[in-house]
Amino acid sequence: MKTGYVLNTYPAPSHSFIRREMRALERRGFQIHRFAMRPFDGVLVDPADQAEAARTEYVLGKGILAMIWALFTVGLQAPLRMHSGLALALKTGWRSEAGVFKHLIYYLEAAYVARRMFEENIPHIHAHFGTNAATVAMLAGYLTARPYSFTVHGPEEFDKPAAIALPEKIARAEFVVAISSYGRSQLCRLVDYRMWPKIKTVHCGIEPEHYPAAQPMPESRPVRFVNIGRFAEQKGQLLLIDAMEELVKRGVNARLTLVGDGELRPALERAISHAGLGAHITLTGWLDEEGVSREIENAHALVLPSFAEGLPMVIMEAMVTARPVIATWIAGVPELMQAGKTGWLVPAGNTAALVEAMTELAATGDDRLRRMGTTGRARVLIRHNIDTEAAKLAGFFTQRPRTQPS
């Protein structure tokens, strides 16, 4: 079965979970056509991301004339849908924070995707994230009278559902995927209860063959923490600077590695310098998958003080490596982690609780840390095997499509 995937910026260093999902579907015999609106504007350091970029068709890169021509050719095949699709784009734009002009651009992007769906005989398209990629998928699905679906990750979609017309997108979709039960509950809040059955739960996953065995816990001290992710307000990395400062005052022999990059990097660097923690905290920038795995293996624990999340892939990657995790008790995180068994769960935004958890972990014997890691590894292998999750998604793709709403 052919399926089109619609994405905004792809591939990006933080979107390896999308690549894993598509590869798992391809192992099941699916042909995945990758559409992205634009490429990542930074440097792709991972060879797997570079390979994905080579396989991706970039819509905006085709130029405005190609999109207008696509609209013309689609209009010849379905003139009524072309006009009513424009009305749908305008209606959605009036309700959305993006505005009417951007929705006209989304409409042209959708026309290009629709033309390619006709040419490649793609019967279904799926988007990741409920923002503009889902808008393009919704409009392309309408123009082609073919079903579309999308995966919602959060937290951004949950912060402003009306502003991105999320209820409208859910209503028109063949099905909608949430990556956790928590995420599904937030989507159910937005629509009539009669639509709840179309909201599915499919976890993001890891590829078990890449993690054939638990990795030995480092035996040496200082205790090493690692944090991985985009440097942004919602990830809470600035709390880690305060926490590390307090650990040093307490005489805890600890080091922290921050893997990633983003808009908060200058603020993090200033905070590290102001606290005099240059010898205790290292910033690596973005790393490829091998580099991320190496940093997890070199650490005693992952620490993730997020303010808002969906269900972070990096928690799964740490757990399958057999590392305990310190994370905040938010969103889908407690569905995977078990406090006291696989790590520590702390209230979001509570620096004191974060410090206590990090201090307790530093004082915990290696045997208990290893037991936590082993328990976590077993749990993530059961719950987040990407081939198992892709099988669920494949079943939804191949179900009998319902009638598209007008």
Structural description of this entry:
This protein is of the alpha/beta class and 406 residues long. It has two domains: 2-205 and 386-397, 3-Layer(aba) Sandwich (Rossmann fold), CATH 3.40.50.2000; 209-383, Glycogen Phosphorylase B (Rossmann fold), CATH 3.40.50. Helix content is 48%, strand content 16%. It contains 17 helices and 13 strands. The strands form two sheets. The chain has a seven-stranded parallel β-sheet, sandwiched between helices. It has a six-stranded parallel β-sheet with strand order 10-9-8-11-12-13, with helices on both faces. The model has no long low-confidence stretch (mean pLDDT 95). Keywords: Transferase. This is Colanic acid biosynthesis glycosyltransferase WcaL.
CATH class of the largest domain: Alpha Beta
Topology as H/E string? EHEHEHHHEHEHHEHEEHEHEHEHEHEHHH
Which outline best applies? elongated
Look up the CATH topology of the largest domain: Rossmann fold
Domain Glycosyltransferase subfamily 4-like N-terminal: 105-209
Organism: Pararhodobacter oceanensis
GO molecular function: glycosyltransferase activity
InterPro entries: Glyco_trans_4-like_N, Glycosyltransferase_grp1
In short, what is this structure?
The chain has 406 residues and is an alpha/beta fold.
Kindly list the characteristics that best describe this protein.
406 residues, 6-stranded parallel beta sheet, 7-stranded parallel beta sheet, alpha/beta, Rossmann fold, 17 helices, 2 domains
